Amino acid sequence: MALESEERPSQSITKFESMLKTDDIYFFDAEDFEEIIHHYLNHGKIALAKKAIKIGLRQHPASIELKLLDVEVLVFENNLEVAERMLDELQLLDSNNEEIYIQRANIYSKKDNHEAAVALLQEALQLTEDSFDIHSLLGMEYLFMDDFKLAKESFMKCVSFDEQDYSSLYNVIYCFEFLEDFDGAIRYLNEYLERHPYCEVAWHQLGKQYFTKKMYPEALASYDFAIISDDTFIGAYFEKGKVLEKMGRFEKAIENYETTLKLEDPTSHAYLRIGRCYEKLGNDEMAKYHYYKTVHEDPLLDKGWLVITEFYYKKEDYKKALYYINKALNIDGDNPRYWKKCGKIHTALKDYDNADFSYKHSIDMGNYELDTWLSWSEVAVLDNNLEAALQILTQGHEFYPESADISYRKAGVYLLNGDKINARIMLMKALKEDFDKLADFNATYPQFCSERWVLELVSASKKTSR
What we know:
mainly alpha; 0% strand
């Protein structure tokens, strides 16, 4: 008899689809229609679900459950006003039906009124003992509200209802991570693993927490247990490779990345990491081979072109580096990091006009890092445009008003420009901000460090600092 109950939904669906093909009219119980509609909704076949609802309501016009499924589809398709009118009618017939509150909550969620949605879901909880789905919906509403603590508690309840609900388990860990409570996540996962010692998903997530905390031996052990639990778990091999990289065990890391290539279709990310491992091992030919495999596998992966750029930049083959950074820019021309790298390459090629253009582009796109301002100003100095260098450093000071690096650099540019008054003011500022960085100033501008007034200023500042 148990087998018959398992077969019934598929038999009902087969019978229903046969009816659609032949235009015959078959009778189904209301429960059969519910099974058919849920099947189509779960598989994203909305048109067939709507047909089943329409026929089902013809045969069972008083079925509240079928009407609620009709409402669910209306909400999904954003026909919210019609859905609300139907819910008003249904509530008069069955005011204690938790599904009515759930669908009203879905409508409020669609309208971005998540507080109202939560209130309705809390009401629904009072009306049913089967609250798994409600806690899951509550968790999602809390995520919309950025209340990760309550979201975590809701998803934990889902896991307590069904410990094989990996979607909720992932959401619990996501909340721990967002709250930066990595120790809490580790405790939670270890408690879970005491009950389910062969759960590869939990071991994998535990490894990620240890990796974040730089507890590499523990992370490695977690990934090993994930692989013991499921020796085809690609994610565990890949993450294990990343841990081995951090531990400097590059040959073993390569083995794990190569395992992922054998288990499934090759991925550009695996080739990329293998290339990096070979580069760290000093095997440039194998590194280059895998970098090219990366972009061959996915020509639109801009990181692939960038890593080839870095490879040639380190080798001081700047023309090839420029060729490949342009490949990356063709894919993602709005990436400020790529424009910054482009600026460095043009500087190395002594093409200061294009270097200036690249750094300006990088800053215009939101890269306000300190070394970007310093590098851009250096390009202007190399191009003998000292006024532009001062303007760049002044802009940089707006973002880093207490940066000794900018103050020292600005003092040097003033000196190069023959403006000893402003140079003195700026050098005094720099010495107060960070006396120890004077050595960098002396290295950058050795022609000025032995001037008498500079030595006196440094001596006075040293006494003051004591």
